[in-house]
User: What shape does this take?
Amino acid sequence: MNTEQLHANLVRLEIPHWTYQLYDGPIDDRLVLEERKGKWLVYFSERGGKHNLSTFDSEPEACDHFFEMAKKYLTRK
Assistant: This one.
């Protein structure tokens, strides 16, 4: 999946938008998807630190991983 599809899936699961960051904006205390220098990063941001950092070569790999992390840690169900 790509970032737009990921966002649609997060909305469908009713995951609160303040618990994750997919685009530019504040990244503290949330799950983050970030593209940097041709790599895709997925991590939890807390107090400026990047925790449980995973790096991917492609957007689909990173989005799939992000979605699994979000389902595991951010759902209220």
